[in-house]
Fold each of these.
Amino acid sequence: MTRNIWITAAVISFAGAAFAQEHVATLRSGTPLADNAEPPAIAKVVNSDLRQVRNYPEQPPLIPHKIDGYQIDLNANQCMQCHSRTAVEVSQAPMISITHFMSRDNQFLASVTPRRYFCNQCHVVQVEARALVENGFVDIDSVLEYVKQNQGSSD
Amino acid sequence: MLGFLRKLWGTIRRPSVHYSLGGLTMGGFLMGIIFWGGFNTALELTNTETFCTGCHEMRDNVFAELKTTIHYSNRSGVRATCPDCHVPHEWTPKIARKMQASKEVWGKIFGTINTREKFVEKRLELAQHEWARLKANDSLECRNCHSAESMDITRQSPRAADFHERLLFTGEKTCIDCHKGIAHELPNMKEAMLEGSLVLSSAQAAASDDLHDYLNRHAQH
């Protein structure tokens, strides 16, 4: 009996894996390996200059403008041309967060700490494109609302 | 020597014995066309991208960098070549710039930037020359194509429109003040600031300095 259960479990998991493999969303979308897929059109970068909602408080803010060709290397950091502490008066851009001045020991430095130097390690632009896969993300406010309602009904 | 000059002067101020007045006039006219035309043709030949990129110093460094920017490749196919930005279009300033450029011939002959390392070492100085030149002529070479009068800021992003309205139209700043590094990579901006050629990017430079220190420290370990 135990043996039968094991075999059934193995068959189900194997079939499940095979099914999943067929339906993994890839950028190639079913094009045979030897062929070149027709690439999708390059999506436009959102350039509205309007700040967007953060999905959670710690989320690095999205970049609401184009950053084509912005140089960030040992020589220069072009983001800082507007977002640095001294530049915001002229640029009226949001200053980089105070956390960017903190060393890994939480000590405040005079300027940007090296570990925060490369802006687009965390901050990214958005493009006007449909999501490749469905996203089930739910905002924390909705979660709290849901919990509150369910508690209300169970109590 | 003085005798020779006196003799030459005598020859010049005496009327011609063998040649007709018409022949001399026509000859002078034709030679004028040939020499002036030749001079101008040669000058314009040095004012082309093919000429500039004929040397590896330009082709492998600055021209390679230009190729990734909007001034080389864009949606409408209008583009700037080297002399469009780096040589004045008016005749007198152009000749003045060409005379300055004899220093560049010197540099070519003696290999001032004939390796990538030498170029990187000298890049800040070279960039500063161009920044100073554009600052002094109110970004004339930018404005040869981008005129403030024809700039429709309603078609720009809100950010760009605001900047141009506040800083460009009021004459507070000129193009090069904000658009450094538009066509080539920027040199070390920290050093640029120390030498006082920068206003806006002090924090940008300070940050890059910290990174230098950090990497130096870690390179030693």
Amino acid sequence: MFEVRFHGRGGQGAVMAAQTLAEAAVIEGNYAIAFPFFGAERRGAPVLAFTRIDNKKIYSKTQVYAPDCVVVLDDSLLDTIDVVAGLKPEGTVVINSKDKPEDIDLGKELRTGVINATSVALEILKAPITNTTILGAFAKATGIVRIESLEEAIRRRFGEKLGAQVGERNALAARTAYEKTIIGKSKAIKKLEPKKQWLPTYQELPVGGALVEGKTDAGLIGPGSFIENKVMGWATFRPLRDKEKCTMCLLCWFYCPEGTIVRISDRGDLMTNYDYCKGCGVCANECPVDAIKMVRARA
Amino acid sequence: MSVKKVITGDHAVATGAKLCRVEVVPAYPITPQTLIIEHIADFVNDGELDAKFLTMESEHSVMSAAAAASAAGARVFTATSSQGLAFMHEMLYATAPLRLPVVMANASRTLGGPPGIWCEYNDSMGARDSGWLQLYVEDNQEALDMVIQCFRIAEDKRVRLPVMPCLDGFVLTHTVEPVEVPGQEEVDSFLPAYAPDITLDPARPSMIGTFMPAEYIMELRRQTATAMESAKKVIMEINDEFARKFGRNYGGLIDTYQMEDAQIALITMGTVTSTSREAVDELRKEGKKVGLVKLRFFRPFPSEDLRKILSGMDAVGVFDRSISYQGGGQAYNEVRSALFGMTIPIINHLAGLGGRDVTMEQIMKMFEITQRAANGEKVNPVNWHNTRGETV
């Protein structure tokens, strides 16, 4: 059995990647299952997806805890999540990154395949959806499925939903990534400490789970605690406002779903708090005078 | 001082709620509960009760408003029945684990289809796993007294769960009998004001009922289950305190009648208990050692009490006014679980479904069949009483 864990962000297509990989394995005559694990799913939030591949029916319905391969669709996740947790020592990591394998610090020396999937996806698909691209890198780095089977699986799943042309373009993205993937070894410098989490016993949990503002070893809890939950890493793009064009109509301030646009009343100006901006682009979309442009948050 | 009044079960329940000084009453009418909320509306209108009376657009909204008002720190009462209870089913599950001590009377009524308005327990039985405490009363006095006890139980820090007292539709709701109405000052000294630690208060922000991932929900379920278990002791304590103060002792989780030397026991719920008391008297006159166990609380289920009182019986009959479409009624199945490992024959007696009258004759038949099982005769484990088809 070969087990894969995908780390992505909502909207990048990690779930679709896991399913497409399963389909490719089935095309080759194997058995495969794929399934997601979400938190409160939102665009940009970290998500997990899993694929299991075997040459016989798979009965296990648990999450994957000791994967043979970890696929990371967004290298900003490396800062907050120990993506290689549980990875078998001889396992492989596939990462979407502009860096070379030897420049990527996973806290362990691991066989690592790297592709700048965001660039490939933006170029071929005109969108930062990296799922098909990263699958090409997966095929190259692991050899578990042939690139031809993946192309076929992509044509089927994406073609059926979004039309043959989209299917073809995604297959091309996978093939391009397959050819550009660099394989090497990651570096082992950082010490990964598991993120602390507030885990009360049933007696410690306040009655009915009702919470007032509070502080624990693992950080704030209750109302206002999300101030610690900075989401700048979720953003592929961020808004830049042209002050000359801006008429201060405040539509962006009104529409921002996260309230990250702040009015500075004494100067009659606006400020974006990028710590909490997920780069959704609603502000740019709503701006009636095109004063807001979305620019790449990172390369 | 208490006053004797001749009132319906619905009037008794409404009077109990008034004496508890309930602060918010979201309401939606449904037969045979309607009189309860009409009486409360009158109390509020006449200035006898200082409460916010909210006429809602549905029962789902009633329970939503009840949960929210309770979370805001108010003492909340409402009442429903049958389809109304079914309609608020989703919100029942929101109220209990959030530990909101709402008290809601349920006028037991058959849950359609087919539609009917008379007494059956299939409405409240559908809510038995929602985390609400559930009890079934026998007469109008108990209906009034239990509303008062229910608020004490619900608001007790060891419990903090919603409670659903159920009274038989029409058999109690629309029947008048003498009821001793306690004085306000007596009730005030028995039931202090509700004072929760955390409420929805703008001055002290809190989160109640927000999204909770799997890392916490197991602990929350365990906490709720522990509270339900703790309720057994609290119910007994409050029963005893009430008995000392008001002179009426209901026994706690169960009540018993003529069980001291009984060899055959019948377990009943609601008003059938009342008629069964007379049946026991009749059979005792004939020298038969029969007794009665009144299942007062269905949640928490009094497994320990039943094992104790039923130990050594020759046979036990269990009356059910609803069926789970799987081997008899709900009480029967719970009793069988409670008595697991004991070798007593347990016989189910289904009667009164859809509001069909449960007569003295039928209750005698229940004792007779149970006696036959005690004698070692082969009898049906589940018996449909007064139901056309093969006779039992």
